[in-house]
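Researcher: Quick one. two chains, 727 residues in total.
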Amino acid sequence: MTAIEQADDRALGEALAQALTDAPDTFDRASWRRLAESGWLHMLAGEGAEGPARELARQRTPMEQWGVALPAGPVLLNVAWLLPLVQITAADGIVDEVSSGRVYTASRHTSGATADPDLQAEVDGGTWRLSGSVRLVPWLPDADETFVTATTSDGRPLLAAVPTSGPGVRIQPSSTIDPGISVGDLELDQVPASVVIDADPAALETAAAIYSLALDAQAVGASGELLDQTVRYVSDRRQFGQPIGSFQAIKHRVADMLTATESARAMLWLAADQLAQQPLDPPWEEIDASRVFAGDAARKVAMEAIQCFGGMGFTWEQGLHLYYRRTLVAGSLLGDVEAAGRRLVRYGLSTTKERA
Amino acid sequence: MREPLRQFLADNLPAEWRDANSGSLDDESIVHIRREWGRILHRGGWSAPTLATSVGGLGLTGPDLVAYLEEVVASGAPEVLNANAIGILAPVLAAFGSPEQCDRIIGPMLAHDLLWCQGFSEPDAGSDLARIRTRAVPVSGGWAVSGQKVWTSNALYADRCYVLVRTEAASDAHNGLGLMMLDMHQSGVEVRPLRNMAGTHEFCEVFLDQAFVDADDLIGEPGDGWRLTMFALEQERASMLGQRALRMARELNGAYELLGTAGVARVERELGRVHAAVRASEAAVRRNLDLISAGASPGVLTPVAKLQWSTAHQNLYDLVADGVGPDFFADERSRGWAMLMLFSRSETIYGGTSEIQRNLIARSLGLPSSR
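Model:
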């Protein structure tokens, strides 16, 4: 980045931090509408189909800021999946809906560019009707509509939004251990699609890539925040006549927290820079490597922070547990670290076969 | 620049030298190959990538340096024998030495006409380097140096040694130190190879008994030693990591080949994590190279990268061993890997131990020192 881009990046980060002060831990419609009206959900729009990937690589500090504030609701799903997809496919209708506060979520398969396995779509006089079930849809209880990917009778994927209430829709709402992430199972019986997005596979892959990297930015931002809080705490807290941060056992844990955070940061922005150079052909090895490393790093940093805070770390009030909960749920429900690791391994094996 | 370098490597690197390492060859062969390669690279005009052009280097930074490192690593070329001195002593001379010293010393170093070793650590001064006791006493025309150095790589073959000594008798710790260049071929120098745990002998003890150093072979002034050494150690960390982190990414490909489908299945869960850690280590080093080429100091990111690389590398070997299974330690085919695994234990020790790296990182975060 040039010096000017760096200054812009920092300023944007501070502006977002301001906007998110007092953001509630649990989903709240009024707060969501305020966020939607503020325009922050559109931060990655940019220009044209290549805009979102380029904006992601340019807006490092604000993207990491989403991990510092931990806002409730499908924030990154809108910022980094839905609105970029809309931008890439020029499906503009949804943009106004989002800005006015309508809450969209998406099934995990959909945000990962694959089809929901138990969902079918049939066309009925010009309307697509969806039937079947989808498990573990993040934020389903908070959403007005959810994007799912059904399979048509000739085997093609159909990306569509369905309402989360009304005739033919049954949801089984639930919560996760993260107060900002609700979840639910969805059953559909001939439900008409309210929106259909005609997206080619490349567009879906790009949106999935941007979302994965946004989750990494959240993870890195959270890690950085935990590190800052830990450094302050161990510098102030005294035992045995000195700050506990002067003991090597603590010092070395903190050093490991920084090493994990900075290595994750390097991997994330390297992957994002590559995506920005080839937006329609995501570098999946780098993106999956980033998911695995950032997801794991965030979890480890949260555990180490709790450890360094001692008894205080284990209290509700200290608030470290909110980051720990976020890393656990984000690393499995939203951006599955284990699945990314398996993809990496398949990639590694495939390179050997090529040479053989 | 990439194409001509790739062509040069293809034309001049003998196939049997590709990926040659102590895992598969004896000490003398390794030394011979690394020295010859140093000569060939220099004659071709491709040595000393980061050294300033004013003193005979290529002065590469940024994408050019990355391209250079990528091509060299991809070719499987060995590290040249004088890599340590070229990466550390040459920049120290360029920054703090006299023009006469630069003219006299750097050329034969790059050409591998003279071989170099580094004399820093002592039996009582490793991580705590300021505690060195090797003493340099002023004599007519120069200094008489007495003391003992340890962990001196390739001292057995070296013609010269750059050595940290105490120039002031009553001085303590960081004060009163000097950096000098010593001729290894004199009666006051005795070299004893040490056997490392992998079974090879590059490390040595060096016993100095009134070894003579010419006044012209002191770098800077007496008392400058600590400052020059700190600069030298920073160079060491920066120069070592570039190639090694990129080489590790290449090793990852080799690991998949060695493991095969069956081996991968045995360790799949951890392998994804190790794969990610290898790529993240590479990303951290690339970022540092970018920072350096933009004229910024990586600061805390240097110890971060060293710690990250060394840990990831050791984990890679552990995982490959687990994945291959019992054959790993018995089979000739994987013997090279097993040897490298033994060697890798030194990576969290040399170039500043992991514990020291963590202390440096913690200090950089403002954590108070222990007392």
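Residues 41 and 47 of chain B are 5 Å apart (CA to CA).
Researcher: Thanks, that's what I needed.
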